[in-house]
Design brief:
Length: 117
Amino acid sequence: MKHKVSGTKLGRIKKHRVALMRNLLTSLILYEKIETTQAKAKALKPKIEKIMTYAKRGTLADKQRLMKHLYNNQIVVKKMIKVLGPRYKDRAGGYVRVLKKGYRAGDAAPVSIIEFV
């Protein structure tokens, strides 16, 4: 039974999965649009929604939380608080969308684009 088990493992151990999610988060914030597999995009969506809530508030504690989630990358945290936070200040949720693109040529994995709305 799979009661109260959330998230996907993506075929990786925990350390690798956490590092992958942090790298995807950082890339999505920097470029505002990335192309990845559908499973990774679906796993990334709730994480970006949660940290966007911190960026909208923009307090010192929220900035420290963002630093924790984003590898202490000050450039990314500044962009979250100064650019993306004010952009979505009045929005209640749904900051990103996942669009299906097709299939990857090498292994026929379903590919998606995840971008800010």
